[in-house]
Design goal:
245 residues; DNA/RNA_pol_sf; Reverse transcriptase Ty1/copia-type domain-containing protein; 6-stranded antiparallel beta sheet; RVT_2
């Protein structure tokens, strides 16, 4: 919870203000999650502060909400290209992705439970950045990400807006965005590292190295035979366990 509050502070997500007359603040709550690896072992514990977006009113504190995500078909197609052309395949994770989105609407939120500011208990937070749970959060993050990567020469795919490509002479790189998971497939290691540097300079990133577990799908490779396999073993085991089978 302290880590999450530190992220809020680092990203300058809100300011404390007195609630203006006629406005009603939206609430917020803590959500706890256990992240597991492909073998089901506990990787880390996460606490996330989530706005109660269901109390937002259209036209007042949100307008557009649509945000694209890459399709599983695009993911499989990129995997086929990786196997066929023996591309480098790495993955990165955006920490607190939604906090990167800028807000254009005026949104007031109650202070988080357990973390009320001393001497400012009666004040509310005016949000400057989008926060998880807001109806427009996903859209604002996508718009920010798109703006940054296209500025650095990436071209968005017309049929799947979350797939990008950059060509540099005979070298090329594909970038697949699925909310806050980023998959990088490149014909050149230097281009791959340049892209990682660009992403890390603009967002708080976690470099996960060679891709092995993406979107709950296990990836295994045998580069000597140009083979790449996808397995959903972890998901299948979870379903079997749920039904005691």
């Amino acid at each position: 919870m302290r880590d999450e509050m530190q992220s809020m502070s680092n990203n300058n997500v809100w300011e404390f203000v007195n609630l203006p007359k006629g406005y009603k603040p939206i609430g917020c709550k803590w959500v706890f999650k256990t992240k597991r690896d492909n073998k089901g072992n506990v990787e880390r514990y996460k606490a996330r502060l989530v706005a109660k977006g269901y109390t937002q009113q259209e036209g007042i504190d949100f307008i557009e909400t649509f945000s694209p995500v890459s399709t599983k078909d695009s993911f499989r197609l990129v995997m086929a290209l990786v196997a066929h052309f023996d591309l480098e395949l790495h993955q990165m994770d955006v920490k607190t992705a939604f906090l990167n989105g800028d807000l254009s609407e005026e949104v007031y939120m109650s202070q988080p439970e357990g973390f009320k500011e001393n001497g400012k208990e009666n004040m509310v937070c005016i949000l400057k950045r989008s926060i998880y749970g807001l109806k427009q959060a996903s859209r604002q993050w996508y718009l920010k990400f798109d703006k940054i990567v296209t500025f650095f020469g990436f071209i968005e795919n017309k049929f799947d807006q979350c797939v990008y490509m950059k060509v540099n002479g005979s070298k090329y790189i594909f970038m697949v965005l699925y909310i806050d998971d980023i998959l990088l497939a490149s014909s050149d290691v230097n281009l791959l590292n340049d892209t990682k540097r660009i992403l890390s300079a603009n967002f708080n990133m976690k470099d996960l190295g060679e891709a092995s577990f993406v979107l709950g799908i296990e990836i295994y490779r045998d580069r000597s035979r140009n083979l790449l396999g996808l397995s959903q073993r972890a998901y299948i085991n979870r379903v079997l366990k749920r039904f005691n089978m």
